What we know:
Mean pLDDT: 87
Strand order of the largest sheet: 3-4-2-5-1-6-7
Domain AAA: 3-172
Number of helices: 13
Helix content: 40-55%
CATH topology: Rossmann fold
Protein name: Soj-like protein
Structural class: alpha/beta
EC number: 3.6.-.-
GO molecular function: hydrolase activity
Shape: globular
CATH architecture: 3-Layer(aba) Sandwich
Keywords: Hydrolase
Order of helices and strands: EHEHHHEEHHEHEHHEHHHH
Radius of gyration: 17 Å
Amino acid sequence: MGRVLCIANQKGGVGKTTTAVNLSAGCARAGMKTLLVDLDPQCNATSALGVEPTNRHPLVEQSPIRESVKPTAYAGLEVLPGSRSFHDVDALATVDDNQSRRVAEHLSASLAVYDLVFVDCPPSLGALTQTALATGDEVIMPLECEYFAMEGLTQMIELIKSVMSRRNARLQFGGILLTKHDHTLELTREVDREVRGFFGDVVFQTVVPRDVALAEAPSHGQPIFDYAPRSRGARAYIELCQEILGRD
């Protein structure tokens, strides 16, 4: 089975879904057979690739994953759509340990055909995020370059450490990604220094800049490479794809 990378942060608005979508599209462009799994009840990763959310989530119904994935406009990129069903959201968010293990096993059993799988986690520390992390090989945590975004950093890291300590867990800390980076702001430069000073090589060299094109692209159902291929955001995600693929 290929690498399973979870994109997770309990705080919303930090670029989590933007990162999941553009990493998936970028790696598919590089020739990797790639799947994006949308576990966020908002289903933004699904719609950002021009795909409609499902009426029922296949992980709730335990239906075959291969029958539920949808193609995208990118060769080599498929998506397991999210569901906005209140029943499904509640079912996935309140799973107990046994159910979580079954969901993780069901998901893992269907991923062998992919080189890379990216999982867009919900913005929470709940059971669904824990289930995703239990399935993953690596976790990437986007972190917005402002102090409020750093407040929950310790909680997220404690959750990651908890999952990593479980028996048979494969999860490793893939890295912290600095997002909405504006090098002209002293606050950004200070956050950058503090995070790199504390976490060292765990922080990706690539930073994702503040770029209005990244905010606009999802409304057109396109990754940044199609919507604004010459933008700073597109260049950043190309560099991030290279950095991640270079670690394989």
